[in-house]
Write a structure and sequence with these properties.
By secondary structure, the chain is an all-alpha fold. It has ten helices and two strands. The chain has a two-stranded antiparallel sheet.
């Protein structure tokens, strides 16, 4: 997986955790590394395959092998965190991996890159499909003002941790793969912080993970996965939808947060109907990329500036090693 081109450019670099804390003696570090790996695998699996790299990784069996290794490491280090729900969801993720392994052995082993690309287009289309759009701002917002505020909040998270979209990746910051890779980054940063940065900095990263799951991916990804199951019906992306659904349930239990997930009734493609009591001018609907225009006007607010005391009573892993 080290050859995967990242979608997020990181200001600075992170070395593997080493030094005074031996990873094998720190279940908290192992949990963070396992979660980081699983977020990365899920992120990569949903991107459009531009070259043979992911298909080779899948056909070689390394995708399933790496995921199982991360799952086992995470399972052994749970020590009761998340309760029975977390353990049950990890077992369900393992079953999804069994399905992926079976599919690779029976079908994907003979695929060419064009076959995987065709399967991705079948499910996700060449344009934004309304059957299962992998973009957060299309959920729970019935006008572009709401979309812009959500996009601004996402940008605030990325900015707060010194990451930005890679110039080589042609996706929006609210794409599911980008948001999942951000969680991969945060979990990895947690493992580093536990080894090198002390309790205070570790807690900042843990809190950021809780808030991003509760306020973002924990809200829209469960509905997206249900939509993806219906759209894909079978095949690789159907299995990854099951994987993603169970993984998000695990994360909510593990982190001790309770997102308010969107329902089918909350999914409405956005329009330019202004919120009640508000108006807008300048003919934004005639200026091309309306979301970008509105985002420039709204700006991006850092998660550090809002809801500072909102989650004090929530449970989950603490920031000490």
């Amino acid at each position: 997986m080290n050859t995967k081109e990242s979608q997020l450019g990181v200001a600075g670099s992170l070395a593997m955790p080493t030094g005074s804390v031996a990873i094998k003696d720190s279940p908290a570090v192992e949990r963070a590394l396992g979660r980081s790996k699983l977020y990365l695998l899920l992120s990569w699996s949903l991107l459009y395959p531009e070259d043979d790299e992911f298909l080779d990784y899948l056909q070689s069996g390394e995708f399933v092998e790496d995921a199982r290794t991360a799952l086992e490491s995470l399972r052994q280090g749970l020590e009761g965190i998340g309760g029975e729900r977390a353990r049950t969801k990890l077992a369900a993720v393992a079953k999804s991996l069994d399905q992926v392994e079976s599919l690779v052995a029976s079908e994907c082993v003979n695929w060419q890159l064009s076959d995987l690309q065709a399967e991705h287009r079948r499910v996700f289309s060449n344009v934004i499909t309304l059957d299962c759009p992998p973009y957060e701002t299309l959920f729970g917002n019935d006008h572009v003002f709401g979309q812009a505020h959500v996009m601004g909040d996402i940008a605030g998270y990325y900015r707060a941790f010194g990451v930005e979209l890679s110039k080589d990746i042609h996706e929006r910051m609210d794409h599911l793969s980008v948001e999942l890779e951000f969680m991969h980054f945060l979990a990895y940063k947690e493992s580093y912080a536990r080894c090198h940065d002390g309790a205070d900095k570790t807690q900042i990263v843990v809190d950021a993970q809780k808030k991003f799951v509760k306020e973002h991916i924990g809200r829209w990804v469960p509905l997206f996965c249900r939509m993806l199951v219906k759209k894909a019906d079978s095949g690789f992306f159907r299995h990854m939808a099951d994987f993603g659904s169970d993984w998000m349930d695990f994360e909510a239990a593990y982190l001790g947060v309770t997102p308010q997930p969107y329902s089918e009734a909350d999914y409405r493609p956005a329009t330019f109907n202004a919120p009640e009591g508000q108006t807008y001018e300048c003919g934004a609907q005639d200026q091309g990329n309306e979301l970008s225009i509105l985002l420039n006007e709204v700006g991006a607010s850092s998660f550090l500036d809002k809801d500072k005391n909102k989650d004090k009573d929530e449970a989950g892993p603490v920031g000490t090693a």
